[in-house]
Amino acid sequence: MSAERIILIRAVNVGGAKLPMARLRDIATDLGATEVSTYIASSNLLCTPSGDPGEFDHALEQAIADEFGYYREVVSRSPAEVEAALVAYPFGDAAHGHLHFLTGVPDSTAAQNFCERDHGGGERLAVIGRDLHIDYPDGAGRTKLTAARIARGLGVTGTGRNLRTSATLVERARG
Questions:
Q1: How many CA atoms lie within 13 A of 4 on its CB side?
Q2: Alpha carbon of 128 to those of 9, 41, 51, 81, 97: distances in Å?
Q3: pLDDT higher than 70, residue 1
Q4: Which residues, at least 6 apart from 162, have a Cβ–Cβ distance to it below 8 Å?
Q5: Which of 59, 70, 120, 139 is the most core-located residue (most Cβ within 10 A)?
Q6: Cβ count within 10 A of residue 49
């Protein structure tokens, strides 16, 4: 199997926002996607959308909202884009490295200010294009750097994945 897109959905299967992976695969198929699969229960979808990927992302957001009653951002990248983000990761072999895939490119001044600010956990941050690279020295579970705080600071929303999951998604997408 080979998929053209890695699709990441923000904040599902946490805090009461349930989205069964079997149903997510069905929704993607109903929207015309092929080569559909999921990886772990945190809303990682691999598929080849029919038509424009951005339009597919919006249709998927709407279908989830219509069926489940909550809105969640869908962020997608090609396997090559995720691989490039992994290669560009500026913090070496960080044990708790993450990529926060953003819905757009943040304002450069906002990004610089956000990355230079102390967020209370010693995190190292860098915005490269549409991705926020994060090193959580004490682990992501203890950070105060939430998705909401990132969205406020950068002016764009997104969703995070650790480096291992990101690399696995690239491998699985390439089949």
A1: 10
A2: 20, 27, 27, 12, 15
A3: no
A4: 96, 97, 98, 99, 140
A5: 59
A6: 25
